Amino acid sequence: MNNKNKSIFSPTLKLFMGAMILANISSMMSFGYISLYLADLGAGVSDIGTVFTITSLVPLVLQIVGGWLSDSIGRLKTIAIGSVAGVIGAIGLWLAPSWEWTILAIGIGSISMALVGPSFSSFIADQTEEENRGKVFGITQSLYQVVGVVGPPVGGYIAQNYSYKSMYFVSMLLYSVAAIVRIWMANSLKFNTENNEKPTVQSFKKSIKTLVGLILSGGVVTWMFLADGTSDIAIRLSDSLSTIFQQEIGGQSIQEIGLLTSIQAVVMMIFNIPGGWLSDKFGERVGISIGFFLFATCFFIFIPATEFWQYALAWIISGIGASLLMPAYESLISKMVPEKMRGIAFGFFRSTLGIISFPAPLIGAALWERYSPQTPFLFTAYMMIVVGIVSWFKLNIPKNGIGQSESPLDGVS
């Protein structure tokens, strides 16, 4: 980092985080209820699985491209480009006359997530000392969790008392304001990590070749890739069906579903900072493994639940698990690559969501319809246990572990 005395929470970064929070309040309002919105537009369970499967094609490619653009033209410029796509997608969701039209809207909106996600994580890593990186990711993610406290209950209130269309209109307005702030920042501010390189096909190929070589090396990155892919499959088997399950099987109202999401977000706000500290103190594998085990526990409570407090308990445990896992995971990835390749590294790993788990929503919907609504959630729970065990034994990194001097990526230009 060029200036070690520069606070991670400088005025500029506060504005950056503020825009991120506003944009993601909008996202939590819209995508948090997307399954129910699709059902309201006439989609069945298999239709919902189809929508999520088709729209996952976008991050399949663009998260890698988004990370590469972030490394080439700069974090803020990439975020600004993604924000324009986000506004178009939000307008599309609001105006969609049928569930089929939401496929196009969600696909365009996914461009925003694919471009913004790698840049956000890379920007935080760029500004952070390696020995404190887990803690800093924990702090920023705690601040970020305000979106889960505000977005779902506000969205649920509007949808239940007015209409889904009204909710998506408000969501579109909020995202538009955030996009304006992001575009202004990209054109008005310069950071010491922002680049002015011209993106080329040759540089993209070189970055991809380096990362693929690292993944195939058989080391920690290989096991991270396998664990990430397996957990993505597990999550996407049931994630798009969870709100439908809570409403149809658990008898929860729209507002109660939103409140449950807020409870989870509050828990994550509280535990993200301790989770980051745990990562820095005892190593990333501790938080990652325990996090996966807690996810499994969450689903074993979620599946037979019939009362609000039971769902709340499940979401509390899930929130603690995410708080232990995410700061450690982000920290571990950031330590594997030099600063100038962090964007494409984050994008490459996140693209496993599209590459490996592409058919998972369809499979989850088929398991629901062919066997029972509980079946996809059981598969998720057992897969989380397996990933937790693998992570404990294979992500054991020495304290001086993967310093820049020992990284296989050293010397990459």
Describe this protein's structure:
- With 413 residues, the protein is an all-alpha fold.
- It has a single domain (11-397), classed as Growth Hormone, Chain: A (Up-down Bundle), CATH 1.20.1250.
- It is 77% helix and 0% strand.
- α1 runs antiparallel to α9 (164-188), α4 (57-73) packs antiparallel against α16 (342-350) and α11 packs across α18.
- The protein is globular.
- The model is unreliable at 1-6 and 400-413 (pLDDT under 50).
Structural class: mainly alpha
Q: Which percent range fits the helix content? A: over 70%
**Radius of gyration over all CA atoms, rounded:** 20 Å
Spell out the helices and strands N to C: HHHHHHHHHHHHHHHHHHH
Count of discrete structural domains? 1
What is the H level of CATH, i.e. the homologous superfamily? MFS general substrate transporter like domains
Task: Extract low-pLDDT stretches.
Answer: 1-6, 400-413
CATH topology: Growth Hormone, Chain: A
Q: Summarize model confidence as the mean pLDDT.
A: 81
Strand proportion, as a percent range, falls in under 5%
The first-to-last residue Cα distance is 18 Å
Could you tell me the number of beta strands?
0
In quaternary terms, these chains amount to single chain
Gross morphology: globular
**SS field, number of helical segments:** 19
Biggest sheet architecture? none
CATH class: Mainly Alpha
